[in-house]
Design a protein that fits this description.
Layout (H helix, E strand, L loop, with lengths): L8 E15 L2 E9 L6 E6 L5 E6 L2 H10 L5 E8 L2 E9 L5 H10 L4 E5 L5 H9 L6 E8 L13 E6 L4 E2 L9 E8 L13 E8 L4 E5 L8 E3 L3 H15 L3 E4 L2 H15 L14 E5 L2 E5 L4 E4 H8 L7 H9 L11 H7 L2 H35 L3 H4 L4 H15 L10 H9 L8 E2 L9 E5 L3 H8 L7 E2 L9 E3 L6 E3 L5 H22 L3 H24 L10 H24 L2 E7 L2 E6 L5
Parallel strand pairs: 3-9, 11-15, 13-14, 15-18
Antiparallel strand pairs: 1-2, 1-8, 2-3, 4-6, 4-7, 5-6, 8-9, 8-10, 11-12, 12-13, 16-17, 19-24, 20-25, 21-23, 22-23, 24-25
Helix pairs in contact: 7-9, 8-9, 9-15, 11-15, 13-14, 13-16, 14-15
């Protein structure tokens, strides 16, 4: 499969991306990374990893016989923890990931098969989890450099190909470098909404957080940042050339999944220009992520900042101009969108204004990316999934993948996603009551104090051991062996520690350790890195409560969500009553905190 050119050697890479390809009917994992020192691009291949799934059987021995008769030979029996209960599962190992969707329904229909599990974890994500390697960490690889001569894919000369021979090793280290290159396009729009079939790209702007600024165009300018090309075809080729030359860690845009990249791709196809932006010289591809298509550039992490902003901020409008003003309290250069073609056709000072506007679009995109992507990088490292995916996940999805990672580490089998019927039943069931709210009292008050609980819901989950695997009807247990929730009477065993409470406890402990390191750190860049890491942990912990009631959550348990808010209401109302004993009068409360005015004797 591979033509090896030297003896065993060690390569270290900053892991940026991962996928798999098929070679000789085998799935081959590809790790895309850069050398931490030279920034050379490296594609590392691992052909040893194979897909698998689990079967929960009615009778293990009978099921093994049935599976062998079905034609499956690579079978093992493993003990796994299933929502707090140890069970025997049959592990089925297959030859290629594409066999999983082909065989799963037939396997599920076998008489002795009660359930199949972990059949829907994508192959590349399974690799990261099982190998315990983390995106954006420095990974140590042992193997050989591959000879690119006569290799079937046209790889650039400056890309190193490497065959992994031993288990990859995560050093748990990363680098604070975050080399960002943003891109933005302006298109001709004389007829209103532009059409990529006929309306050309007139400007392509690029900006790096390391001082690089360039606008490509087919018209000349007095601005020194403008590079003039002879045609749109040449402009597209130069765009590809610059991205390869600059080799950024992140390639960022604003609404680039929905507009910029699809438009660039369509224009390149129309003009027959090869848009070979990938490390492997592949073109831009689009894959479904949620309700949208995401622009994939193999080996280069493309991040659409628009999606991140929608997660991190609450604004009335999410235009680039509005977001930039909110983050930096500055007004960016603006040109009315429906007048762009007029500025282009003017060939006077308005054209120069359009060049300034185009450059400013890229510069502001870079500044926004420089500010918010470090948190997304920290989340990628925490959750253990690729940055490209994390940048397009909801918080609930991140939590689920974090729990899948921890389930593997603790030998827990992962619950299945709900069926359509289960999902509809969950969705239509009565919603849990939320946190306690006391409407604000009217009037003007002085001597105001604000009191709030630190991490109220995560603390309740830990203190009351609220988890699907600790939920009990109390049968066979004495009253001192479980916690009873106020209002609804739901019960949770005190021992052993539940899966999710133990994970939240770990998150909170890690956050405190990192905050301590942050206080002691004297290097500004490392201090910032610690800050983003603790922010990422905080977001995970504080969002964990909400997913208990999310209808598509694998660890869904409505009773858990109801109990958390019930205990929360009790805690805050109790705290309000106690404050009155010290001369305070609560005047407003919401979920985890309240305002109170002091009415006691100030003397």
């Amino acid at each position: 499969m591979f033509n090896i050119v030297n003896r065993m050697q060690i390569k270290t890479i900053l892991l940026n991306d991962i996928d798999y390809i098929t070679r000789n009917d085998r799935a081959v994992i590809r790790l895309f990374g850069t050398d931490p020192e030279s920034n050379e691009n490296i594609i590392a291949y691992d052909s040893t990893f194979v897909p698998y799934m689990y079967v929960l059987a009615y009778d293990v021995d009978k099921c093994l016989t049935q599976l062998r008769e079905f034609g499956l030979d690579n079978l093992e029996v493993e003990k796994k923890i299933d929502i707090g209960v140890e069970r025997e599962f049959i592990k089925i190992t297959l030859n290629h990931p594409q066999e999983v969707p082909k065989l799963r329904d037939s396997i599920r229909d076998l008489k002795e098969v009660k359930e199949i599990r972990e059949y829907d974890i994508p192959f590349y994500r399974r690799y990261l989890i099982d190998k315990q390697i983390t995106p954006r960490n420095i990974i140590k690889l042992k193997g050989h450099i591959i000879n690119k001569e006569n290799y079937e894919t046209s790889i650039d000369d400056d890309v190193i190909l490497f065959k992994i021979e031993e288990e990859p090793e995560d050093t748990n280290n990363t680098i604070t470098r975050n080399k960002i290159l943003s891109f933005d396009i302006e298109v001709y729009n004389a007829e209103g909404m532009p059409s990529a079939e006929k309306d050309p790209i007139i400007m392509m702007s690029l900006s790096g957080n390391y001082g690089y600024n360039k606008v490509l165009s087919t018209k000349k300018s007095t601005r020194d940042f403008v590079e003039t090309l002879d045609s749109e075809e040449e402009m597209l080729k130069r765009f590809v050339e610059i991205i390869k030359e600059e080799n950024p860690d992140l390639l960022v845009g604003y609404n680039s999944d929905n507009f910029d990249l699809p438009y660039i791709k369509k224009r390149a196809d129309t003009l027959k220009v090869k848009l070979n932006l990938g490390i492997d010289n592949s073109s831009v591809k689009f894959m479904k992520r949620g309700f949208n298509n995401a622009g994939v550039i193999k080996g280069r992490v493309h991040v659409d900042l628009y999606l991140l902003i929608r997660q991190y901020m609450r604004l009335e409008r999410y235009t680039l101009e509005r977001v930039y003003e909110e983050l930096f309290d500055e007004v960016k250069i603006d040109v009315p969108g429906d007048k762009i073609y007029k500025y282009w056709d003017s060939d006077d000072e308005k054209l120069e204004e359009l060049f300034d506007y185009s450059m400013d679009d890229a510069v502001t995109t870079t500044k926004i990316g420089d500010k918010i992507t470090p948190l997304t990088i920290a989340q990628s490292r925490l959750v253990g999934q690729p940055l490209f995916d994390i940048a397009r996940m909801t918080t609930g999805q991140m939590i689920e993948w974090y729990l899948i990672l921890k389930a593997y580490e603790q030998n827990n089998i992962v619950p299945n996603k709900p069926t359509n019927m289960e999902y509809n039943e969950r969705r239509l069931s009565k919603r849990n009551e939320g946190g306690y709210v006391k409407e604000p009292e009217k009037g003007l008050f002085e001597h105001i104090a604000y009191l709030d609980f630190k991490s109220l819901y995560p603390t309740i989950i830990i203190a009351q051991n609220i988890s699907p695997d600790t939920f009990t009807d109390g049968e066979g247990l004495s009253e001192d062996e479980y916690y009873t929730c106020p209002e609804n009477g739901y019960k949770f065993r005190k021992e052993p520690k539940g899966f999710i409470p133990s994970i939240i406890g770990y998150i909170l402990d890690e956050r405190q350790k990192i905050k301590k390191l942050m206080k002691e750190e004297t290097v500004p860049e490392q201090k910032k890195a610690y800050d983003f890491e603790q922010q990422g942990l905080k977001r995970l912990a504080n969002s964990m409560y909400g997913v208990y009631g999310y209808s598509r959550f694998r660890w869904y348990k409505k009773e858990c969500g109801a109990s958390i808010t019930a205990w929360g209401r009790e805690y805050i109302q109790d705290a309000m009553k106690k404050s009155e004993q010290y001369g305070f009068k609560p005047i407003y409360a919401d979920t985890d905190g309240f305002y109170a005015t002091y009415i006691g004797d100030l003397n």
